[in-house]
Amino acid sequence: MGQDVEISGVSMRFGEFYAARDINVHIQAGEFFSFLGPSGCGKTTLLRLVSGFMDPSEGQIKIGGKDMRGIGSNNRPTAMIFQNLALFPLMTVEENIGFGLEVRHLPKAKRQKKVEGLIELVDLYGTGDRMISELSGGQKQRVAIARALAVNPAVLLLDEPLSALDLRLRNHMRAELRNIQRRTDVTFIYITHDQTEALTMSDRVGVMSIGKLEQVAKPDIIYNTPKTAFVASFVGESNIIQGDIIGIDGDYAVLKTVCGSFLCKNPQQLETGETATIFIRPETIFLAKEPHEDNLLTCRTKTISFEGAYAVVTLTTEQGQIFTMRLNNDGSVPRIEEGENIKVRFNRENAFLLKNGGTPIA
Amino acid sequence: MRNFWNTALRDLGKVGVAYILITVGVWLVFMILIPQLIMFDYSLRPMLPLREIGGPKDIWTLKNYMVFFSNRLHMAIFFKTIWSSLIVTLTALALCYPIAFYLAKVARGAKVGLLMLGLIIPYWINELLRLFAWQIILADMGILNQSLIFLGIIADPINFRMGNGAVILGMTYAYILFMVFPIYNVMESLDRNQLDAARDLGASWLRIHYKIVMPHAKPGIAVGCTMTFMLAAGTVAAPQLLGSPSSFWFTQVINTNFECANWNLGAAYATVLMLLCVIFMFIMLKIFKVGLKELTQ
Known about the structure:
The complex is a heterodimer.
Chain A lengths: L4 E10 L2 E11 L4 E5 L6 H9 L6 E6 L2 E2 L10 E4 L11 H11 L4 H14 L15 H14 L4 E5 L7 H18 L2 E6 L2 H7 L2 E6 L2 E6 L1 H6 L4 H6 L4 E11 L2 E6 L2 E6 L9 E6 L4 E3 L8 E11 L3 E8 L4 E7 L12 E6 L4 E5 L7
Parallel strand pairs in A: 3-8, 3-9, 6-7, 7-8
Antiparallel strand pairs in A: 1-2, 1-4, 4-5, 9-10, 11-12, 11-14, 12-13, 14-20, 15-19, 16-17, 16-19, 17-18
Helix pairs in contact in A: 2-3, 2-4, 3-4
Chain B lengths: L1 H43 L18 H8 L1 H35 L3 H11 L6 H12 L4 H8 L14 H24 L3 H9 L4 H30 L2 H6 L7 H10 L3 H25 L4 H4 L2
Helix pairs in contact in B: 1-12, 2-12, 3-7, 3-9, 7-9, 8-9, 9-12, 11-12
């Protein structure tokens, strides 16, 4: 059974450098929780703190309500799956999976039974006496999962374990991992820089920038209502325009930009006079039907890339601002050509005004 | 094979291939094969006055070997040499395994360089001088005895150079590098994550070393032990300078044979020692289940 992990006020300092700063999050028992962030954001550090390879400089980590300070990784109810898997190359599949059980002095017969059960759980039937080097990438992955699950961890820590696999296998293993998590009811803490991975598998996602936890929420909430410019730009693609706030209207604000003034959501409650950035997802920009709607942009289509189910259109405004729009191929959109002048718009619900920061669309 | 030659010819050219073949050939034939064969040939011939060499009495015989196997004292010295060399090897292994592990997996950055330098610096000094230094340290009124007396631990100086203790100490010191480097080399290639993974799965440090580090380091340990054993069994300087006059080593016996101008007997004794070292190497390979090929990695 899974246990909850309570991370409160955790900071990790290496000399002057903070790898993690004041992290607060309560991961529920049996939850699939992902930390999502670019490389160097401190997510691996956080995982190593939970697994017990080091103790935080400040703050507290509780697993199942018990303070973990001073308890080594060999005595925590956690098991980790390493990015490079770290399987033992001089042992067979069975010996790898049984390692944690042997360490716990489980009698041989019981160990054998448990290992067989795990081999079945991760679908590795018939590979028990093979050496690690004889396995395929996906099989190695499964051995790593089985080896970690063998010790009955309350919390399974996964450090980008799928990053070495090719796309098809990765998609398959995602579903598999999610499946195993549901069946075993173990708390999964998953580290990744791949947003699709985080969004598709997780119950909740914590987005991290340089050492900081920016937002913790369900995947759809992270995507639809990012709380900071970093989250908005890191998760999914966004069009951005910078400008100054010239008016407030309840939960909305008006931003004056080079392309005109726009009415957008103001989740950070910024005030008049502040500079801010609008984030608009490509799929929330539409062709304008009426000529006098608000949040209207006049553009010229630059390139149209047809992807089948949808087309990605890049647009330039008269001022040289570049936008990306994603049009669904559902028959409702009139045909447009490259170099055409068109008017597009977006709903105020779908545009977010956030404090500057964040990187433009790649 | 044909492919190999074609690739070599294309990459190195005729001159390059010829250069490599000649250098390897010269080394193999003139520096290894011929000297060993000459020694073996010597060991099979009786010692004769100069004018009788090549004469009717100059025939191959096992007489020199019989001399060795019938000389109880020399046999005893031979076994003592094996025994002492084993002690040197094991002591060096016990010392060097943690050093190599620390260097390869614990220390980082500039620390590794400094420690390496620390290990190498003594080797900038000639081996004989290092042994003389030990002589001074271990002398009756040497620094060690004086310190112990000063600290009140002993009343009278200990004669460290009685027996084989000083020789074993001096040899262990002299051959540490030959043990550290092979082990360090293989440990270097061990993925640190494997240590973390084993730890994470609940293994104690002892078990991690027994199950993960040692199996990985096996080829290095085999090489280190073989080299240290051969050097210890084959050196004449350490027993000469640090040993007591009453305790002879096998190399000293060989040396004496040559000094007494009985080169044939000396060659026979040297062949026996060489055989011992070869046998030891194969035993090591067997114990550590390492192939000759892996030794070179």
